[in-house]
């Protein structure tokens, strides 16, 4: 599987075959059966189904499913897991429908491995402290990007080397400006349906979206949750357009950064247009001592399987492609053109 989860890939191949047969998978995915591949990708249908199955496995309510899933001492048995998953979809369809109804909230912490390069670039170019505002923030774990420790291959390291959140990535290309002086003086985040990590059920849902055979991702998630709980991280429940318009206006003496990752593609076209208008309005109001930056890790419009890190900085509104990146942050090709 391209994204590095053979277990998940095997389950999805079996799911596709079961949909074609009109089996239990077709019933729980009835709202999407017949949709185009682009629509299925946009709605993250495979991720929803994988999450629903993993949630059952993690809950312990289905011991046979749990025993077939990967763990530190075993690779997992895809055939046994799928057989049990079919039984559960047939026996508990509403449980799956309820899980599938909620858009995925993965909050992949490793995406900060590329975002950090953007923040460092903004700090270097402006020479100002940062005000950081994240939209589509899920649980808000990436608000604490400056509290993590980064190992960027031959490019070097950055951050707090005593942090419980240790992020490595396959860094290609020159290093970002690691010597830039970084001070975050304000941080906030919003999401239409935020994940409240103080709620055990919400934490369980986050864990379910981690692919079961990627145990390193689970360890990073757990460490980031511990840090976020200790720091009192919160995410405001709000529409991104209204929130960004009200909260993220440039301010004298700081560089204001609006940022997001793997969020834009899930917005309706009219919401994208409205948010872009709000961003451009903030950009038009920016001054040299009150700059405004738009930092985003998103796929290009016609290639949803790949990701780019782009930065637009006002005044001036220059847009830069900083990097091409793996969707989970596993690889960063800095300066790729």
Oligomer: single chain
Compute the separation of the termini in Å. Answer: 25 Å
Biggest sheet: strand arrangement? 5-12-11-10-9-8-1-6-7
Mean pLDDT: 94
Q: Strand-residue fraction? A: 15-25%
Low-confidence stretches: none
| Category by helix and strand content | alpha/beta
Describe the structure in your own words.
- It is a single chain.
- The chain has 337 residues and is α/β, with parallel strands linked by helices.
- 40% of the residues lie in helices and 18% in strands.
- The protein has twelve helices and twelve strands.
- It has helices spanning 6-21, 24-28, 37-42, 45-59, 63-68, 78-91, 93-100, 112-126, 200-208, 215-231, 240-247, 269-285, and strands at residues 130-135, 149-151, 157-159, 166-168, 170-172, 184-191, 236-237, 255-261, 292-298, 307-314, 318-325, 331-334.
- The strands form two sheets. Strands 5-12-11-10-9-8-1-6-7 form a nine-stranded mixed β-sheet, sandwiched between helices.
- A hairpin with an 8-residue loop joins β9 and β10 (307-314).
- α4 crosses α9 (200-208) and α6 crosses α7.
- The longest helix has 17 residues, at 215-231.
- The protein is globular.
- The model has no long low-confidence stretch (mean pLDDT 94).
SSE inventory with pairings:
Elements: H1 6-21, H2 24-28, H3 37-42, H4 45-59, H5 63-68, H6 78-91, H7 93-100, H8 112-126, E1 130-135, E2 149-151, E3 157-159, E4 166-168, E5 170-172, E6 184-191, H9 200-208, H10 215-231, E7 236-237, H11 240-247, E8 255-261, H12 269-285, E9 292-298, E10 307-314, E11 318-325, E12 331-334
